[in-house]
Write a structure and sequence with these properties.
This protein has 343 residues and is of the alpha/beta class. It contains twelve helices and 18 strands. The strands form four sheets. Strands 3, 5, 6, 9, 10, 17 and 18 form a seven-stranded mixed beta sheet that branches. The longest helix is centred in the last third of the chain and has 13 residues.
Amino acid sequence: MRATYLLGDCAVELREVPDPVLLEPTDALVDITASCICGSDLHHYHGPAVAARPIGHEFVGRVAEVGSAVSTLKPGDFVIAPFTINCGNCEFCLQGLTTSCLRAGSWGRTNSRDSACQAEAIRVPLADGTLFKVDAAVDDALLPSLLALSDVYGTGYHAARSAGVSPGDTVAVIGDGAVGLLAVLAASQLGAERIILMGRHADRTDLGREFGATDVVSERGEEGIATVREMTGHGAGKVLEAVGLLPAFEQAIGIVRPGGTISRVGVPQYATGPVGREFFGPNVTLTGGVAPVRSYIGDLLPGVLEGRANPGRVFDSVLPLARVAEGYAAMEARTCLKVMLRG
């Protein structure tokens, strides 16, 4: 089969590798129907050269084979895979915090034995706890939104849910990438009255408006902070930071209302940031973190299946797996928002 390998220095390559096989009785083998490139993959893509390793952490597909201990899945089932590997029955999984699973793993690294998702097939460890079975007919039109449930939709929802977004709230979303746009969608679904999207790409912010943004602010830094404060009076009560860069976090601090909440879901690309008097004096809450996407799929899937939510609109490009390098280059150049890969 073919699988994508990260090389760093803005390079990936598609390699012929052995077909996956069952290694543990709790494993499942899945034929990947669709995978995608994530903005977080770009952090490693444009970094320094690295020892080649498989990459990709989002996919949907059909079960091909299951181990003897797998009880909830059978060959032919259509499944969504979250971006972490989870056992499903430890104390953290049972409370919904699957990203803190005591047996947690990550695709291409811990627990996966080099299985990663930008490929034609994959071995899934802890299959009962990791994979979510879709008990509905699946066609090509539904694929993008089901794939969004493996990461970006759940992550955007985590931003809004962690912030405690509720009916009548004023919410500011920093970042017009896929996660930021789906944080807008989630905030709208949770009843926010006003949603200010801070982004600079018109094609993306236009989609944000369709997802529920009532205002768009294109300015950054102090200028952007001043604009939001002028619009809101004292700032936004809920600020969802979906970028992960220090200037975005500083911008969040600048626009949050006293007594408000900042929810961070952008993977931080900095070691330390301000968490002192900026939070203490105005009683600001800092929350967010790595989204336990597996725990959210069951809540979000009905809206997708019933056509009430279409998070798959963030995929503005579909490429065959053979052109995965083009997909990375397009996302690095910001000419694509998010690329879906088909075998």
